[in-house]
Amino acid sequence: MYKATLIPGDGIGPEVISAATSVIEAAGVDIKWDEKQVGQAAMAKYNNPLPEDTINSIEINRIALKGPTTTEIGKGFRSANISLRQRLNLYANIRPIKTIEGAKTKYRDVDLVIFRENTEDLYMGIEHMIGKDAAESIKIITREASERIASMAFSYAVKEKRKKVTCAHKANIMKLSDGLFLSSVRSVAGKFPDIEYEEVIADGLFMNMVMNPQDYDVLVLPNLYGDLLSEMSAGLVGGLGVVPGVNIGVEAAVFEPTHGTALDIAGQGIANPTAAILCGVMLLRHLGEKDAAERIYNSVSRVIKNGKHVTRDLGGTASTLDMTKAIIDSLPGS
Ligand code: NAD
After folding, report:
1. InterPro entries this protein is in (predicted)?
2. Fewer beta carbons under 10 A from the terminal one: N or C of the chain?
3. What is the dihedral angle through the alpha carbons of 66, 89, 157, 219, rounded to the nearest 10 degrees?
4. Quick one: which H or E segment has residue 187?
5. Measured in angstroms, how far is the CA atom of residue 6 from the centroid of ligand 1?
6. CA-CA distance, 297 to 68, in Å (whole number)?
């Protein structure tokens, strides 16, 4: 039996996370979940968006499945997600963006993986007012953090038999900060002569990504551009409801969907559980449970392709529970 931390999160989080745990259970993998809180749920219970108890649990289990958590815009407590990544040194955010046949989208055959640096850049939150009418936000880029995200992206490319790594930057404008990111990635690229390496200016990448997403394979970006690209790329394969992700470091891995708390549909039982279930697939692969992972992935694909039991965002009328049940029923041996 495995042990992992479970963070249901806010909004639609508990609905989609319970879908993921029930599919994992139905696939026959025994995980003892240690349920903890982050975000608004933690504020309500502990008056702290990121309780030490939650951090301790992830440090012990080294694996967590997490739902989205609320961050107020322009006020309120600091993003618990960002604090969590920094506390546990989850230095990479990985998002596989892959076409699922049957999901409503303008593109076919998209299959790319985004490696986003997760601990620094403008997201360190070092900002202050200068008087009443000006604000300053400080962008930090270090060689160490840039090289380790690049190493992870290239090592992944080798392990998964990918062909190309693309590094995106704005070193034409931010010559020192993005320049350091670029030169760090370039130096790592030199150690992987069998992987094709290309450099693109981030705005050009965004344009080409919506025209020719099939041009890309593995991408490595600093935090801010990586965040924007991950969200945009979800739109290439069916939207936020179908894209999983992981925040990972040396000591721990926190699997969480790309989407947020979706307060507009929370509590209605209509959220798409796919992203959370595919986070479960990533978690199982991380544990080495490859057979169960593939069975679940194939079952999700079958249900989406079939189209009869999919949620509204995928063009259907199914509830979260209906879609989850269809995925469980479609597992081999069910
Ligand atoms: P959102 O992802 O919550 O919602 C954007 C749109 O996508 C909404 O219309 C929503 O209904 C839809 N959507 C999202 N997930 C869906 C799903 N599974 N099924 C069907 N439809 C879905 O983005 P937002 O409105 O920008 O953010 C809301 C809150 O979530 C904010 O507080 C934000 O900070 C937080 N957030 C948290 C995380 C995280 O914890 N990892 C990530 C992103 C946003």
Report:
1. IsoPropMal-DH-like_dom
2. N
3. 80
4. helix 177-189
5. 19
6. 21
What topology is assigned to 106-223 in CATH?
A: Rossmann fold (3.40.50)
Catalytic residue among 163, 203, 290, 305: 203
Q: Are 123 and 140 in contact (CB under 8 A)?
A: no
Question: Is 46 an active-site residue?
Answer: no
Band of pLDDT at residue 74, cut at 50, 70 and 90 = low
Report the nearest atom of ligand 1 relative to the CA of 313.
20
pTM above the 0.90 mark? yes
Residue 228 CA to ligand 1 center (angstroms) comes to 14
DSSP secondary structure, 191-238, as one string:
T-TTSEEEEEEHHHHHHHHHH-GGG-SEEEE-HHHHHHHHHHHHTTTT
Find out whether the beta carbon of 261 lies less than 6 Å from any atom of ligand 1. Answer: yes
> Above 70 in pLDDT, residue 76?
no
Return d(Cα 243, Cα 227) in angstroms, integer. Answer: 13
Which amino acid appears at position 43 of this protein? Answer: M
Q: Which atom of ligand 1 is nearest to the CA of 69?
A: 40
CA of 177 to the centre of ligand 1 (A): 30
pLDDT tens sequence across 262-309: 999 999 999 999 999 999 999 999 999 999 999 999 999 999 999 999
Q: Ligand 1 centre from 259 Cα, in Å?
A: 4
Domain with CATH 3.40.50 in the chain: 106-223
Q: Is 170 a catalytic residue?
A: yes
* 197 flagged as catalytic: no
Amino acid (one-letter) located at 332: P
Q: How buried is residue 176: exposed, middle or buried, by Cβ count under 10 Å (0-12/13-18/19+)?
A: exposed
227 close to ligand 1 (CB < 6 Angstrom): no
The answer to whether the CB of 278 falls within 8 A of the CB of 18 is no
- Assembly ipTM: 0.98
Q: What would the pLDDT profile of 91-132 be if each residue is shown by its tens digit? A: 999 999 999 988 888 999 999 999 999 999 999 889 999 999
Q: Where in the chain is the domain with CATH 3.40.718.10?
A: 1-100+237-334
